[in-house]
Amino acid sequence: MAGIPAGVVAAGGLVGGYGVARWTKRRPLGGVALAAAGAVAARGWREKAGPGTAAALSGLYVAAFAGSHPLAKKVGAWPSVFAVAGAVAVASWAVADRRP
């Protein structure tokens, strides 16, 4: 993955997917960005930490996307997206990205 930590890719996918959907007003296009980043991140997680960790972090990625919706009703859309993106990035660093 050219040295880019998978957590950065995943966080970028959450933020970028929302941004694309919002600015183009085409939710499916945001979904494509979200899915593409998720696939790249999953490959990085699998390479660094194995398939089990990749599956767990991929599940967290999907849960973060889903969880950002109800959270947005409480704190706003962008704060919610940044919060879940940060959570995924930290989890990724803790279990995969910090490995040599």
Secondary structure: elements and pairs:
Layout: H1 6-24, H2 27-49, H3 51-75, H4 77-97
Task: Describe what you observe in this structure.
This protein has 100 residues and is an all-alpha fold. It has one domain. 88% of the residues lie in helices and 0% in strands. The chain starts with 5 loop residues before the first helix and ends with a helix. Keywords: Membrane, Transmembrane, Transmembrane helix. The chain crosses the membrane at residues 28-45, 77-96.
Concise structural overview:
By secondary structure, the protein is mostly helical.
Poorly predicted ranges: none
Structural class category: mainly alpha
Number of helices: 4
Major β-sheet profile: none
Which percent bin holds the helix content?
over 70%
How many domains make up the coordinates? 1
What is the end-to-end distance?
14 Å
Could you state the oligomeric state of the chains shown? Answer: single chain
As a whole number of angstroms, the C-alpha radius of gyration is 13 Å
Name the beta content range: under 5%
The SSE order reads HHHH
Mean pLDDT comes to 96
**What shape does the CA trace take?**
globular
Number of beta strands: 0
Keywords: Membrane, Transmembrane, Transmembrane helix
Protein name: Integral membrane protein
Transmembrane segments: 28-45, 77-96
Organism: Streptomyces pactum
